[in-house]
């Protein structure tokens, strides 16, 4: 419970310290006196978001310190931040610079961690808190809290099955995504991989082939020039070449020389002509076969064409990427083959888990109906104590189209009379919603209630008997958890075991504990507007005696 609250520079309050007991504490005061400053301070202490507008005019910083009595162990907190010996210290600071601070047990923590931890200890319920009744998830949680251990056990089992089913389905989805990626990435692998092996691909092969082809092109060009030159020397099938002309020229030369020199000239000319012929023959042998060179060029060009085609098919920029594609294709296609069995097994496991979850959901539905029946009867009985005669409460189940981790049920809280019926958000007035929420809080198990409940003028819209009866139920609720109420209703304020009054003096709000005659005067003011009116004071005494 909240034991002490220290407020500095929040709203109209400059400084004050409030001590609380375990029962029913009420806070009263004139409109505009500063009661809302206390509520805002409690909101800050509970972890609600703070704004610079909450800081007292003329001040640069506001602070709220709280001390809670609790033996709870709070999740997400380090050991040194946990309650120690039943005591939990919290602190919130707001600055006009916008940099707020939060601390637990004297250790600074992020505001989100502060809020999640302190939020387990205190809950603030304003006039708009009835809106939580409109949340289907909240309504379902209320029903489930009234179930027996069998329902809780079924819910825990369903959570586990549902989580396992989700993991299986996520794995199935991951496999499907990977299969799709592999199939798209390696759509041409059946054509690419064999050809890569055929061309005996290595890094740099394409550039090497290009160089070989260029070199062979030069050789073929040189071969063509040599052929043309040799044809000119030796002649063709129908024409004589330079060698024939040289032979005839040598013959003519010999014939024209003196006989005594002819033998020497014949020998020299024959040697020259033979050397000429040997040179031509040697050149023919060394320049290679045109057919062989052409076949070699064809093989090189075909191999280079394969590589370029493979790169296009694989979307590769070079041989390294092409080789990487082939390795990936080999591994990916092997994984595809292996994944069929895993896919089939997972599909069956997921199907079995969904079937199990559906069976659990049906069992949960039956248990929920029993829990809902208990809650209906309990709330309807409390309606009689809250001046809601003739109004009934029922819980309607709605079958959801899709199974969720908490089952396949939605719920609708409804009110009905002889003349009207419908969902609470459609037909209930503000006062009826307020009393319905109070009836639910009284009906739900203790673990549903936080250690401290703060009510901010929730009796608005109520009066007379309804207000009195609501106050009595708040008093009853205070036996199960600490209740703090900010109220304008004297009949409810008189029920408090501790009474604080907020008064404004000189532009500053002061908070005072009242008892005895001071309390009678405050109740008289609330009843008549005049704290000194004898009739109002007498009425106030009767209200306190009623307690």
CATH secondary-structure class of the domain at 1-121 and 452-513: Alpha Beta
Rounded Rg = 49 Å
Low-confidence stretches: none
Distance between the termini: 23 Å
Helical content stands at: 55-70%
What's the count of strands? 15
Shape: elongated
Instruction: Find the structural class using helix and strand composition.
Output: alpha/beta
For the sheet with most strands, the description reads: 6 strands, antiparallel
Average pLDDT score: 89
* Total helical segments: 16
Strand order in the sheet with the most strands: 2-1-4-5-6-7
Question: Under CATH, the topology of the domain at 1-121 and 452-513 is which?
Answer: Rossmann fold
Short key terms for the protein model shown above:
547 residues, alpha/beta, 6-stranded antiparallel β-sheet, 16 helices, 15 strands, 55% helix
């Amino acid at each position: 419970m909240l034991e002490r609250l220290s407020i500095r520079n929040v709203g109209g309050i400059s400084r004050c310290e409030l001590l609380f007991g375990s029962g029913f504490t009420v806070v009263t005061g004139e409109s505009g006196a500063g009661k809302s400053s206390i509520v805002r301070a409690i909101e800050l202490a509970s972890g609600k978001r703070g704004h610079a507008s909450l800081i007292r005019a003329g001040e640069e910083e506001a602070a709220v310190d709280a001390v809670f009595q609790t033996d709870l162990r709070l999740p997400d907190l380090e050991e040194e931040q946990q309650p120690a010996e039943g005591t939990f210290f919290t602190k919130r600071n707001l600055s006009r610079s916008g940099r707020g601070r939060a601390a637990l047990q004297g250790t600074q923590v992020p505001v989100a961690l502060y809020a999640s931890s302190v939020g387990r200890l205190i809950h603030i319920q304003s006039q708009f808190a009835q809106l939580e009744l409109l949340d289907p998830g909240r309504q379902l949680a209320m029903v489930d809290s009234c179930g027996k251990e069998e329902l809780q056990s079924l819910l825990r089992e369903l959570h586990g099955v549902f989580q396992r089913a989700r993991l299986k389905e996520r794995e199935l989805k991951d496999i499907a995504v990977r299969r799709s990626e592999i199939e798209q990435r390696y759509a041409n692998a059946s054509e690419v991989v064999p050809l890569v092996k055929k061309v005996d691909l290595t890094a740099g092969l394409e550039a090497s082939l290009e160089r070989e082809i260029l070199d062979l092109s030069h050789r073929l060009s040189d071969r063509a020039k040599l052929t043309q030159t040799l044809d000119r020397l030796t002649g063709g099938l129908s024409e004589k070449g330079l060698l024939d002309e040289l032979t005839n020229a040598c013959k003519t030369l010999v014939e024209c020389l003196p006989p005594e020199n002819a033998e020497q000239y014949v020998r020299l000319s024959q040697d020259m002509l033979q050397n000429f012929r040997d040179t031509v023959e040697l050149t023919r042998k060394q320049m290679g076969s045109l057919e062989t060179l052409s076949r070699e060029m064809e093989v090189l060009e075909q191999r280079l064409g394969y590589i370029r085609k493979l790169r296009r098919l694989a979307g590769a920029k070079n041989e390294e990427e092409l080789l990487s594609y082939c390795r990936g294709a080999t591994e990916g296609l092997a994984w595809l083959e292996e994944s069929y069995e895993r896919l089939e097994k997972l599909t069956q496991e997921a199907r079995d888990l969904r079937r199990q979850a559906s069976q659990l959901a049906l069992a949960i539905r039956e248990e929920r109906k029993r829990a809902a029946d208990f809650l209906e009867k309990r709330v309807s009985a409390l309606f009689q104590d809250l001046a809601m005669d003739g109004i009934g409460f029922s819980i309607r189940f709605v079958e959801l189209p899709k199974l969720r981790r908490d089952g396949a049920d939605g719920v609708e809280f409804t009110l009905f009379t002889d003349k009207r019926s419908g969902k609470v958000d459609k037909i209930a007035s503000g006062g009826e919603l307020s009393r319905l929420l109070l009836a639910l809080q009284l009906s739900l198990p203790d673990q549903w209630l936080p250690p401290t409940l703060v009510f901010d003028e929730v009796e608005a819209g109520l009066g007379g008997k309804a207000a009195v009866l609501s106050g009595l139920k708040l008093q009853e609720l205070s036996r199960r958890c600490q209740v703090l109420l900010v109220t304008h209703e004297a009949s409810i304020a008189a029920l408090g075991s501790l009474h604080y009054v907020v008064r404004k003096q000189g532009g500053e709000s002061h908070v005072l504990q009242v008892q005895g005659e001071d309390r009678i005067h405050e109740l008289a003011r609330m009843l008549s507007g005049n704290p000194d009116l004898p009739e109002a004071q007498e009425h106030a005494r009767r209200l306190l005696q009623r307690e």
